[in-house]
Amino acid sequence: MEVLFPDILLLSIFFLFVCWGTVQAVVKVQQSWSQMFTDETITLKCEIKEGENREMKYEWKLPRKNTPNTNSPPTSSEYRISRVSLSHSGDYRCRGSSDYLLTGWSDAFRLTVSYKPRATLTAGTTIIPVGGSVTLTCSVQSSDGWKYEWFRRTQRTSEGQIRDQQNRDIRVSQGGIYSCRGTRGNPVYYTDISDDVTIEITFSNKVVVKQQPNWPQIFRGETITLTCEVQEGGETTEWEYEWRGPRTPTQWTHNNDVTFRVSESSSGDYMCKSRRRDDSYSSTEWSEAFTLSGSIPSKPTVTLQPSWTQIYSGETVTVRCEIQGGEGAQWTYEWRAAKLNTPPTSNEHRIIRATESDSGGYSCRGRRDYFFSEWSDIITLTVSCKIFHPDYFKLLIVLI
């Protein structure tokens, strides 16, 4: 049977109308996630089922604001964008054509490009006991396909990657500074590293603050020493110490005590804790608060017993120095007149058989180490010659 040219032409036109636009193209992304971040690499693929065995040409429709950035010919089935930017966000469509086939435009594939993310690191707790552990979680904002890299460092060691850990959650039992980042894709894409999380290990040793001198009452102007003492077997460990109090907290130091002059500003609660010198992230709990209250001692008062300020020679009187609010303090005393300052420097002196030479002003002050109270007000004692009764002289004449 002879086929004429007009018949072939009509047949071709028939097939062209049948196939034109009836085959649908589909845009797929090579990665398994649709949200991308700046500087990632993405490959879009135009798939046409009926075109698998045909030599197809492809056409891409890009977002208007997009400038082509491709490592593949624009007529290939794959559209590769290396180092995507925000301007690549938008709808992508494709279609294919061959000698007798022209597909319709695919449905839009919407590409969303966001700024490079920072990983987020969270910890169940940041303080764990010796022998305990804690779960750390690394996450990247609402997107898929991530693996994770974990890092740890200390004040004495540089940052190092924790090997064989790519999971979102890891469990750690060491103190230190931890961070993480997300990775995905080929070539590998890295998020920004997370903020640091510090994990500390706590010892069960009890820590107490002790005061020297161990007086029940401290006065402003006195000098004291507070000592941080690690109990329950801490004697064999080399520790360093940190203080927390009304003054600016100290840095870690090898000295377990602080010495200062008591003032109004130094009154308040003091606490301390200690850590091993060879492990900056293994420490004790804070001690219980030690409350320091710097008092102001009252002005001393000189009293007489009996309370008469005028006596006669031969009588006995006791001079006493009293400091209100200073009870229980280990005072020594200074006196005026100076003749009373013979050791021991007691708070009272008994004058037996007073004479006129004992007349005069008496005052005192208290002393504790290098701290002195005010001088008391002066009390004046007058010793007069004894006045004898007239009958005494009559008896004396008779006896003579």
Automatic annotation (TrEMBL):
Annotated PROSITE patterns: IG_LIKE
GO molecular function annotations of the record: transmembrane signaling receptor activity
A GO-annotated cellular component: external side of plasma membrane
A Pfam family matched in the record: Ig_3
Signal peptide as annotated in the record: 1-25
Keyword set includes Disulfide bond: yes
Entries under InterPro entries matching the protein: Ig-like_dom (IPR007110), Ig-like_dom_sf (IPR036179), Ig-like_fold (IPR013783), Ig_Fc_receptor (IPR050488), Ig_sub (IPR003599), Ig_sub2 (IPR003598)
SMART domains: IG (SM00409), IGc2 (SM00408)
Domain Ig-like: 6-114, 117-194, 221-293, 300-384
GO BP of this protein: cell surface receptor signaling pathway; immune response
Protein name per its UniProtKB record: Ig-like domain-containing protein
